[in-house]
Design goal:
Layout: H1 6-27, H2 36-52, H3 92-106
Length: 108
């Protein structure tokens, strides 16, 4: 196992706390404090650290979770067709990759 620099470990912990806080503000309280772009940048930074230091890839990491506790006003519904996501597509290559995944899943 690689020795992880103390500042890297601290940064990963800070990212997890920050991401979890903003995820809760967005999903549970409908009171986001940062833009989606800023949030996504935090998540990508943590993903990069977890890729470089797999010891950080914990099962409860925000990179392994989707959403948070929803607002009480939201009603559960069943979709006739599964809802797919662009998986944080930010550029043309990301959109093309999404398109390829959809076509593969639909066997087109």
């Amino acid at each position: 196992m690689t020795k992880i620099p103390k500042d890297i470990k601290g940064r990963a912990e800070k990212l997890r706390d920050t991401i979890n806080r903003h995820r809760s503000l967005y999903h549970t309280y409908d009171k986001p404090e940062i833009s989606d772009t800023a949030y996504d940048a935090l998540v990508r930074e943590l993903e990069d650290l977890e890729a470089k230091y797999p010891e950080f890839a914990l099962s409860d990491s925000p990179t392994q979770l989707v959403g948070d506790v929803p607002l009480k006003e939201f009603k559960k519904i069943a979709h006739e067709v599964p809802q797919w996501s662009f998986n944080d597509a930010f550029d043309e290559n990301d959109i093309r990759a999404f398109d390829e995944r959809v076509k593969k899943n639909l066997k087109i």
